[in-house]
Amino acid sequence: RKEVEQDPGPFNVPEGATVAFNCTYSNSASQSFFWYRQDCRKEPKLLMSVYSSGNEDGRFTAQLNRASQYISLLIRDSKLSDSATYLCVVNRNNDMRFGAGTRLTVKP
Amino acid sequence: GAVVSQHPSWVICKSGTSVKIECRSLDFQATTMFWYRQFPKQSLMLMATSNEGSKATYEQGVEKDKFLINHASLTLSTLTVTSAHPEDSSFYICSARYPGQGSVNEQFFGPGTRLTVL
């Protein structure tokens, strides 16, 4: 079993749609969690950290459920510029493990 | 955020040659850098952790004699792919750990190096 699993997609949604990505992780000792965004042929960039209480940054909302070892990312009012691959990242003792990514395409 | 550079950004080489990739933290000192490899439509896979002034720690399945890592200063780590073969063609990305507060120090990624071995 992979340490971090994501639905690979692709998710093809119209502009303005709300889309949600899920991620599960296998190691219950994982300490911190992140969503990164990776554009085609580019390096990953931090989108947001994920906290147990849930956190929001503009149109993006991240949730963490430690009991279920589940992380989610919700994107509201999606824009064309949101098209990218979203990587779920789990950290334990500064050892970061990446999911394979979920590909999102937002269409006009 | 902090800036990490990689050089070269892309390289094409013949099978059997060696290729060196540089990773630099431009505006901070990084005691730890990481080297990842990403094949098309796959996740980033950690190859090794590079510690300044000591030997790199390689992940299981990564040949240390083939992927030579040197972290000679607090701002530079190099990855040398020795005797490259077509199956080594991939996107190589480095990251540097920013020395912040707390239990987790954010990693900043370089722009990546696309290696094609003919």
Give a verbal description of the structure.
The complex is a heterodimer of chains A (108) and B (118). With 108 residues, chain A is an all-beta fold. In chain A, 0% of the residues lie in helices and 57% in strands. Chain A has no helices and eleven strands. In chain A, strands 2, 4, 5, 9, 10 and 11 form a six-stranded mixed beta sheet that branches. In chain A, strands 1-3-8-7-6 form a five-stranded antiparallel beta sheet, with no helix packed on it. In chain A, β6 and β7 form a beta hairpin. By secondary structure, chain B is mostly beta strands. The mean pLDDT of chain B is 90. Chains A and B meet through β5 and β10 of A and β4 and β9 of B.
**Largest sheet, strands/sense/barrel of chain A:** 6 strands, mixed
Fraction of residues of chain A in helices? under 10%
Order of helices and strands of chain A: EEEEEEEEEEE
Question: Which spans of chain B have pLDDT < 50 for at least 5 consecutive residues?
Answer: none
Strand content of chain A: over 45%
Number of strands of chain A: 11
Morphology call of chain A: globular
Number of distinct helices of chain B:
0
Largest interface: A-B, 20 and 23 residues
Q: Output the structural class of chain B.
A: mainly beta
Q: What is the strand content of chain B?
A: over 45%
Given the C-alpha coordinates, what overall shape of chain B results?
globular
- Give unreliable regions of chain A as ranges: none
Distance between the termini of chain A: 37 Å
What's the alpha carbon Rg of chain A, rounded to whole Å? 13 Å
Oligomer: heterodimer
Helix content of chain B: under 10%
